[in-house]
Amino acid sequence: MSQNLHPLAAALDETLEACPSAAFSLLSRKGRAIYFPSKGILGQSAQAKGSALNATIGTAFEEDGTPMRLPSVMEDMPLGPKALLYAPSWGRPELRKRWQEMEVEKNPSLRGKSFSLPVATCALTHGVSVAGHLFLDEGDQVILPDLYWDNYELVLGHAYGAELVTFNTFKDGGYDVDALLEKVNAPGEKKVILLNFPNNPTGYTPTVAEAEAIQKGLLKAAQSGKKIAVLIDDAYFGLVYREGVEKESLFARLVDLHENVLAVKLDGATKEDYVWGLRVGFVAFGGKGLTPEALKALEAKAAGVVRCTISNASNPAQLNLLKAFTSPTYAAEKAEKYATLRARHDKIVSIFAAHPEYRESFEPMPFNSGYFMCVKPVGVEAEAVRQELNANFSTGTIVLSGLIRLAFSAVRLEDLEKLFANIDAAVRKLRGA
Predict the structure, then answer these.
(1) Domain 330-431 adopts which CATH fold?
(2) pLDDT digits (tens, 9 = 90+) for 48-71
(3) Residue 359 to residue 365: CA distance in whole angstroms
(4) In this predicted model, what pLDDT tens digit does every residue of 82-116 receive, in sequence order?
(5) Looking at domain 7-36+89-325, which of 3.10.20.600, 3.40.640.10, 3.40.50.300, 3.40.50.11030 is its CATH number?
(6) Which residues contact 244 (CB under 8 A, 6 or more apart)?
């Protein structure tokens, strides 16, 4: 242990080292050094809570003891003055507890298993950054599919200096589990894996059989001595549209798999609850051999990263979500929005069935969930198709890794026929067909 390590960080590290889990050995140098400043301003402020005279935290109050506020700000603040105050760096306690309860409700096989309370982040992007801070040193490798969200390059590559090592995403119309496990079993003891289901950009979630194969493969690798941190980006969780597809998070399979596997769940309300601008996400930890004290140590380190980067996630957003999550109409409202997205997915499937000629212009990539699906143009570059669609068909698309990504989440049901007809026409035009 470094002599320059802060005593609070050293105490957290000692707790992690003392448990059977490999979590401590997976931490980066920054991950080992980070701590939550429980004895600084925040800790002293907490001790003074309830005092008759409280001159601790940097907030301002009116003469009547309520938060100081501008009437012009409060015109559109239905949550009231309490929304103007800071949230804890860990997140609001009642929201953290409710989100953990919801994680178990959405993943029944988590019931009875031990995992940490989630720590609130500024949505998924910040959650990925928190994980990067904790587990990646410069030059460390991150294993992920070759079809991935391009912001990983900025967050993990640019910000933390990690090397993104990709594996083939699809094989024979399904997920290429063998390609993933080949990278996991390559030389080197420490392995950091980033898996995103439903996947952005492809809109693919593994089948139950593929999820079982991933679980078994990671267990075998762990038994051979690999120490594995699995970062699980569940941004689009719950949006699965076909039978036979894994409906639970991979986190539920890995949370008690083996002492050498640390599962890190990155999720949030952004896509699940259609609140893209509220920016509230969560990071939670689980792994066989992690004691309750070790789980709290990981929470403290995550909260320390939040404190040193953004201080805390938005308090109004957290209050808004807590109100929604405890509403008696919440479940029905979500079911209605799910049905809308599933109808669009089903419509796309029927369009492909009705138009086999489209396969002369583009090949649909496997998809079964989420917000997106991808097509691969035949005989012409994807970027040329994108530009043609923009210029002459008033149709906007995204090109990633040679594929055209289509956010059917953003296209009305009645417009989907036109979307694919435009792509077909654009490809044929570019080919001179």
Answers:
(1) Aspartate Aminotransferase, domain 1 (3.90.1150)
(2) 677 777 776 788 988 998 999 999
(3) 11
(4) 999 999 999 999 999 999 999 999 999 999 999 99
(5) 3.40.640.10
(6) 207, 208, 209
